[in-house]
Design brief:
Blueprint (H helix, E strand, L loop, with lengths): L10 E5 L8 E6 L7 H11 L4 E6 L5 E7 L4 E2 L3 H15 L2 E7 L2 E9 L5 E6 L4 E3 L3 H11 L13 E4 L3 E6 L3 H5 L5 H10 L4 E9 L2 E8 L4 E4 L3 H14 L6 E7 L7 E8 L2 E12 L2
Parallel strand pairs: 2-3, 4-6, 11-12, 13-15
Antiparallel strand pairs: 1-2, 1-17, 3-4, 4-5, 6-7, 7-8, 8-17, 9-10, 10-11, 12-13, 13-14, 15-16, 16-17
Length: 286
């Protein structure tokens, strides 16, 4: 019997949190062998989470090919579903090193169990980069968000950042501005599709290495992603290339507070390595 004929086992994990009510929920299918694209998309849509990861065995030991589907489309890389999948594997096979082969490239993941008994995963991104964004594109994005140019932090200019997926980074000048999110869903989705953007990374700087972030995700059929590992990796690269932080550095990103699903993402920048490491806990959702 093929995996399409049999109902695949679908796991549910909350990533970047230590309890099921926090962080970002993800679906995980540890054996998607034989599942057609349409079936994977249907499973993701039925779950309704921002992403579901589908794994098939790779050629090496503890190596997996991974695909990520939102309720509307496949995405090249998803950080929170990577963390969720890694912890799900560790629950079954034990902690240690795994390799995820994604559409964006190879992503090593290391899982450790803390003294508190919680499993935490660290992913290493593909090679990141940033690029300039035109004033016209920024103005259009602000209009769709209902923001003004005065709402932006002049010390953190808009950029497009990539670490497996493309994100437009917009930094708010105040926490209050970040807390108010009411945007043109269809308009922003069309804007993002035209520019191959996965999310908007909206950020507010609380301190030198502490940030609060939010990620509208209308292209995935979701108003907001509660905790976004791919955007966190891209954001780390953005801050380093901008000179806003200097490696080595460890950043703390708080996300999901405004949704009632608080999560914490740890972003590590190392000297001599352009790749970004993103860490977080994950727990099964009963």
């Amino acid at each position: 019997m093929t995996a399409d004929a049999a109902a695949p086992e679908i796991l549910r994990y909350a990533a970047f949190a230590t309890r099921p009510e926090g962080g970002n929920p993800a679906g995980v299918v540890l054996d998607a062998t034989g599942l057609a694209d349409e079936r994977q998309l249907a499973i993701a849509a039925e779950l309704g989470y921002s992403e579901t990861a589908f794994l098939t065995p790779g050629d090496g030991e503890r190596t997996y090919r991974v695909r990520y589907f939102s309720p509307l489309a496949e995405v090249p890389f998803c950080g929170h579903a990577t963390v969720a999948s890694a912890v799900a594997l560790a629950d079954r096979r034990g902690p240690g090193a795994y390799l995820f082969e994604t559409a964006a490239g190879p992503v090593p993941v290391e899982i450790e169990r803390g003294e508190d008994g919680v499993l935490r995963a660290t992913l290493t991104s593909v090679e990141p980069h940033t690029e300039a964004v035109s004033q016209e594109d920024v103005a259009q994005a602000l209009a769709l968000l209902g923001w003004s140019a005065g709402d932006l932090d002049g010390g953190l200019p808009p950029r497009i950042a990539y670490a497996g997926a493309r994100h437009l980074v917009l930094a708010a000048a105040t926490r209050e501005r970040l807390a108010r999110l009411d945007y043109d869903f269809d308009g922003l989705a069309a804007y993002m599709r035209a520019r191959d953007l996965t999310t908007l990374q909206l950020a507010w700087r609380q301190g030198p290495e502490v940030f609060h972030v939010r990620d509208p995700f209308p292209v995935g059929g979701v108003v907001e992603d509660p905790a976004t590992g791919a955007a966190a990796a891209a954001f780390g690269a953005y801050l380093r290339e901008l000179g806003a932080v200097e490696a080595p550095a460890v950043l703390t990103l708080h996300q999901g507070d405004d949704l009632g699903r608080p999560g914490v993402l740890r972003v590590e920048l190392r000297g001599g390595d352009a790749r970004v490491r993103v860490s977080g806990a994950a727990v099964a959702i009963p």
